[in-house]
Amino acid sequence: MPEQSIPISSPFPEAPVKAVARGEAVLGLGTGSRRQQLAAVLATASDNPAGLAGRSLPEVARYVEATQSRHDLLRTVRDWVETHEAQPTPLHKAVAGLPLRHLVDLSFSTQLEVALQRAKQDFRQVVADVELAYQTTHAIRLLKPYGVITALDESLLLTEQQVSWRHTGAGHNFARMLTTLQEWAADRPWLWVDVDPADPTWQAFHQAITRHTAPRHRREFALTVPEQAAAWQAYGVEPLVTANPAAWLRALGAAAAALPQPPTAMPGPLLGRRPYKFLDYYTEEDADLFFGRASWIAQLTGMIRATPLVMLLGQSGVGKTSLLRAGVLPQLAQDAYWPVYTRPACGIGPRFSDAWK
């Protein structure tokens, strides 16, 4: 029987459509009730099933690791994930079909990775924080905050202490991904899918990535059922009620594809107009010749997207204008923003001074 179309909440929200079309949105994919199912399996296999009944996964994992071993804990988790989360679901396939560049997967499985591979999407999986230090040419960045079963044992964050490392950015091993997630929460719309707002792990994760951003500055949406709408609103997240999230996401992708596409890059020649710059500054036309400032460009563009005002200070001649014009502006244009560069007119300084008196 052909699948029937599921009506989408009306009116169709304009903000996520535009964000998806521009590639700005972040999709946070949860685990539904599966995390609690795994906790129940671990509790049943322990020596204290009654005492662990109804406890969260980090609580149960801590007990199992303490009374048995980390090896036993990982083996049970891997066996369960490989049995129950081996193949991508229609929801994973719908996510893989969206024109997104920022994905956050809270599961331990590779269902989303398999769906992206089958959709022939160009993506990079990021599990360890050190991987964020390298520039990537991949179209999609997929962050796995709690690890994945196919990576090293140490990457799986299961117990309360291990999960808290991710949420607090403890040490250099966990600070970089937390900072990246906080930047995404500050300057990009988020769409939560298959997330239970009552899940204590998600609650702590959400608090960690949004602690520095006021609710009025965030744009968050969640696909949910009517019974959970009020819970989402309590977190400042706009609930989008739908009976079929996969169909909703497919319709979202179709609506985004129908919008006019923004410019993908700033126009310019293939080579700079003056390959030998001497003491002149670089401009947008020289972006192809501007090297050695990739980390500064990434840091500055991230701050610009995350905050309403950024001031770049430095001595004369150190390269501020070149960094902005040949580095930051082309990067913002590549990210589908419309950058505008202006300079004060000659003699305008006194008029500014008079205006502030």
Quick recap of the structure?
The chain is α/β, with parallel strands linked by helices and 357 residues long. The protein has 15 helices and seven strands. It has two domains: 14-257, no CATH class; 284-356, no CATH class.
Tally of strands: 7
Spatial sequence of strands, sheet with the most strands: 3-4-2-1-5-6-7
Radius of gyration: 23 Å
In total, how many domains does the architecture comprise? 2
- Between the first and last Cα atoms, what is the distance in angstroms? 74 Å
Low-confidence stretches: 1-11
Averaged pLDDT: 84
List the secondary-structure elements in sequence, H or E: HEHHHHHEHEEHHEHEHEHHHH
Class inferred from helices and paired strands: alpha/beta
- General shape: globular
Hey, roughly how much beta strand do the residues contain?
Answer: 5-15%
DSSP summary: helix tally = 15
Helix percent reads 40-55%
- What's the story with the biggest beta sheet? 7 strands, parallel
